[in-house]
Amino acid sequence: MVRPTGGTRRGFLGGAGAVAATAALTGVARAQPRGRTAAPRTVAVLGGGVAGLTAAHELAERGFRVTVYERKSALGGKARSMDVPGSAKGGRKPLPGEHGFRFFPGFYQNLPDTLRRIPFPGNAHGCHDNLVPSTEVMLARTHGREDIRIPFTGIGKPPPVLTPDALLRALTAFFETFSRLPAHEIAYFAGRLLVWFTSCEQRRTQTWERVPWFEFTRAARMSADYRQLLAIGITRNIVATKAEVASTKTVATCVEAFLFNALGRGADGEPDRVLNAPTNEAWIDPWLAHLRSLGVEFRTGWAVRDLRYEGGRITEAVVQDASGARRSVTADHYVSAMPVEHARTTWNAQLRAADPQLARCDALHTDWMTGIQFYLTEPTPIIHGHINHIDSPWSITSVGQAQYWSGRNFRAAYGDGSAADCLSVDVSEWDRPGILYGKTAKQCTREEVAREVWAQMKAGLNDTGRTVLSDATLHSWFLDPAVELGGAQASNDEQLLIHPTGTWYNRPQARTAVPNLFLAGDYVAVDIDLATMEGANASARAAVNALLDEAGSGAERCTVTPLHRAPELEGFKRRDEIRHRLGLPNAFDLG
């Protein structure tokens, strides 16, 4: 329920009432709910990204009246795509821009389940059928060094029994293909991963969480290529944090999940998947339409300013609407689904005192991992997969997108008819000097950032005598508008949670000590332990389950699927638990 602060209360039609009215007018029946509460209760979901929309989806299916409040003018959070202003001509759609390219590893389980439950015309499995696999990945080297191409199709079959010896052989074979490093360095790295694979949960959270990945992999004593490929590259380009400070628990959890995926264990699909259209077309817009059909209401441009706490509960959320007016939002339950850097600004002193885990979130860190798109006048797929520009000072990754958008002609569908492809790029390092201007990305203007990123990509792709990227084919570019450069101080309104050592201890649970307040977002402690869409989705499911428990609901609980655990290794983990309690190292840890 929403009312202007200090004014009279104003109600609105929502939830089951809105659905019934819509069904009566259109003859379209709503999806079968997953279980009903005794009487519809109201939920204010504060944030309209993946976490907020997931929470709204699960709650609406269970008969709750849900309203989503989003501070931006668009829904979807960092996952959304966006129109490039002024780019559409001749009846075409605007060129598609985005915060950064979407990537759906096969080890994701919870988000794919949601995608299957979003109807999409012509698809038997909803939006999930819009996921298409890549077949390879490239590590682009500079200074004439040969680029490394890794096939994803048939890259490995799991041994029939995953013994430590069999696992070690599989890891060694994979990294022989992956890195082309000296055999002794590959063997050593595989051995370090075996230590992780056989470490008990206590060692992982109590020891490896405190050890930087750079130290765990003994990178300081290895070759420059070992450091660049296996220590620095993995952390900066994937986790967007520095190897010297990145938590081993976070990095190794991601590596373990990816390797199990590559070996066909615990996988929803291929290791690397993307969407077959711009994100809003393939996923976000159909999702919003489905949520509206379930009765979910949306308020965009409504920013949460405060959560009022009285008598042990949240009594109202103070929001500022799109016109700038202050309003009071009241509901039975509140799901805070904003990114942590924005959510913690709404937690006042009384609320923090009521639940100390909220105050600990102040110690969580965010950094910049931001996208820029280059539109090209010729199709330029480069490879059928992602490119890790491993030697780029700004830690760049990229993917040619039009090759995946089957069934549409990019020229005919987007822009002014002269752009034929979109090379979408993520920039993960904004504090190191570039190769053109000698300035960090934060010190550059937007135009300088575009020129610098283009130059760094060419340095890795055009350095062996073949012109892969040509200046003559560059049509235009689009940098995420959340980034503001060129002023007194650079700013980024949509940052990424990063994972220095010790971060895990400050990540909150979905349930808070306040009975009607729940947390959802990729900063909430979930199994994947990484800022991802999967983490946002899983945390929202956990928040909804906690809300159902608090409400005494008989509705079916959300499934929260953990990362794959190899049953063959559980015995080794149990023995390691004993060694850990005795203060002994892992049995495979040879230093």
Structural summary, described in words:
It comes from Streptomyces cinnamoneus (Streptoverticillium cinnamoneum). Residues 50-548 form the Amine oxidase domain. InterPro entries: Amino_oxidase (IPR002937), FAD/NAD-bd_sf (IPR036188), TAT_signal (IPR006311), Zeta_carotene_desat/Oxidored (IPR050464). This protein has 17 helices and 24 strands. It has 591 residues and is an alpha+beta fold. The protein has three domains: 2-71 and 301-364 and 505-551, FAD/NAD(P)-binding domain; 88-112 and 272-277 and 369-492, 2-Layer Sandwich (D-Amino Acid Oxidase, Chain A, domain 2); 154-268 and 565-581, no CATH class. The strands form seven sheets. Strands 8-7-17-18-19-16-20 form a seven-stranded mixed beta sheet. Strands 10-3-2-14-24 form a five-stranded parallel beta sheet, with helices on one face. Strand 17 (386-389) and strand 18 (396-400) form a beta hairpin. Helix 2 packs parallel to helix 16 (533-551) and helix 4 packs across helix 5 (183-197). The longest helix is centred in the C-terminal third of the chain and has 19 residues, at 533-551. It is globular and about 65 Å long.
Note the gap between the termini: 60 Å
Beta-strand residue fraction: 15-25%
- Overall average pLDDT: 90
Total of domains:
3
CATH class of the largest domain: Alpha Beta
> How many H/I helical runs?
17
| Biggest sheet layout | 7 strands, mixed
Q: Could you estimate the helical fraction of the residues in percent?
A: 25-40%
Gyration radius from CA atoms, angstroms: 24 Å
What is the annotated CATH architecture of the largest domain? 3-Layer(bba) Sandwich
Total number of beta strands: 24
CATH domain fold name of the largest domain: FAD/NAD(P)-binding domain
Strand order of the largest sheet: 8-7-17-18-19-16-20
Protein name: Phytoene dehydrogenase
Organism: Streptomyces cinnamoneus
Domain Amine oxidase: 50-548
Pfam families: Amino_oxidase
